[in-house]
Amino acid sequence: MTEKIIILSDGRSKPLTIPADLAPPTGEVRDRLARPLRDLRISITDRCNFRCVYCMPKEVFDKDYQYLPHSSLLTFEEIARVARQFVAHGVEKIRLTGGEPLLRKNIERLIEMLAQLTTVDGKPLDLTLTTNGSLLARKAKALKEAGLQRVTVSLDALDDATFRAMNDVDFAVADVLEGIEAAYDAGLGPIKVNMVVKAGMNEQEILPMARHFRNTPHILRFIEFMDVGASNGWNMKDVIPSAEIVRRIGAEMPLAAIDPNYTGETAARWRYTDGGGEIGVISSVTQAFCRDCTRARLSTEGKLYTCLFATQGHDLRALLREGHSDAELSAAIGELWRVRGDRYSELRTINTDGLARTAARKVEMSYIGG
Ligand code: SF4
């Protein structure tokens, strides 16, 4: 009989300390590896209507799964207040995630609040969202009108049977493709389409997906299967390295490497040499990119994480609800970033088995967003 993993909402967190020095933010805080803070990912719900096998496997996140009570979620006002502090420390991009963020009621109101924010040098914030696309066709126009700039859509196969097996809730590809077109028509492009590749499950879809999105304005990115959380049964043998994905596509549709759009971009970019557009590969397992990682993550109940593979968060919600000032919140966030030294993927590459054996239970991706 297989052992059942029961995941309760991730209660493990440390208090967030307020340093004595409440110096105002400079917009240029750096961590211990001299990385700036440029990118905040905010999970706004721990709920999802999919059960993707690499993120929220059904046998773990089943009907008995305890979701977070609404009262423990950060309110939109709290999220906007926290976002303001991060922007003052240099954040230029905010990505809304989940679970499935479009399940959070009135998300448009939150987007309107965040869209008011400008970066330290007065530019509009790059406000984006990652979705499984299931509700996109219905919501795209309202999201754009609220101030959202772009969307990234997860789609793991074109073949319906394979896609249904990956999302494990019998959801059809056609509805996600319709959502992508609706988002594009609403002006939320360029649409990035993320495909997680798992050996023996959807690797046969690499070429059909590449052929489908080639010569379109959409950018298809292939993500190596990652050992996120503690419930997806990750094993190195299930990883198709990005170099192999590029080799398979390039054999049929020649590719050339191109420069990143900006430092810290997670995807390595490749363009079709015949002008048919570009693809990306996100290689956290075989080509770690921790050196340029400028990302912080906020869970839906207000815990701060400085790495996707963290084992513990820091409780920002407590500071919010204890009535601390903006200056205290800002100083606490700055101090947390200053002492940051995360580089999990680099360490995993050096010592995969050792790390997999010893590492404490990592936080679930569905809890802090990808
Ligand atoms: S493993 Fe952690 S530090 Fe490295 S790139 Fe991912 S989130 Fe950043």
From TrEMBL:
Cross-referenced Gene3D superfamilies: Aldolase class I (3.20.20.70)
Cross-referenced InterPro entries: Aldolase_TIM, Elp3/MiaA/NifB-like_rSAM, MoaA, MoaA-like, MoaA_NifB_PqqE_Fe-S-bd_CS, MoaA_twitch, MoCo_biosynth_MoaA/MoaC, rSAM
Gene Ontology BP terms: Mo-molybdopterin cofactor biosynthetic process
Keyword Translocase tagged: no
EC number(s) reported in the record: 4.1.99.22
Binding site for [4Fe-4S] cluster 2: C290, C293, C307
Residues binding [4Fe-4S] cluster 1: C48, C52, C55
Pfam families, sorted: Mob_synth_C, Radical_SAM
Catalysis: reaction(s): GTP + AH2 + S-adenosyl-L-methionine = (8S)-3',8-cyclo-7,8-dihydroguanosine 5'-triphosphate + 5'-deoxyadenosine + L-methionine + A + H(+)
Residues reported to bind S-adenosyl-L-methionine: Y54, G99, S154, M226
Note accompanying the cofactor annotation: Binds 2 [4Fe-4S] clusters. Binds 1 [4Fe-4S] cluster coordinated with 3 cysteines and an exchangeable S-adenosyl-L-methionine and 1 [4Fe-4S] cluster coordinated with 3 cysteines and the GTP-derived substrate.
SMART domains per record: Elp3
Pathway listed: Cofactor biosynthesis; molybdopterin biosynthesis
UniProt keyword Lyase present: yes
GO molecular function, one term: metal ion binding
Cofactor(s) this protein cannot do without: [4Fe-4S] cluster
Family that this chain belongs to: Belongs to the radical SAM superfamily. MoaA family.
Subunit structure: Monomer and homodimer.
Main function: Catalyzes the cyclization of GTP to (8S)-3',8-cyclo-7,8-dihydroguanosine 5'-triphosphate.
Protein name, as recorded: GTP 3',8-cyclase
Classification of source organism: Bacteria, Pseudomonadati, Pseudomonadota, Betaproteobacteria, Burkholderiales
Gene: moaA
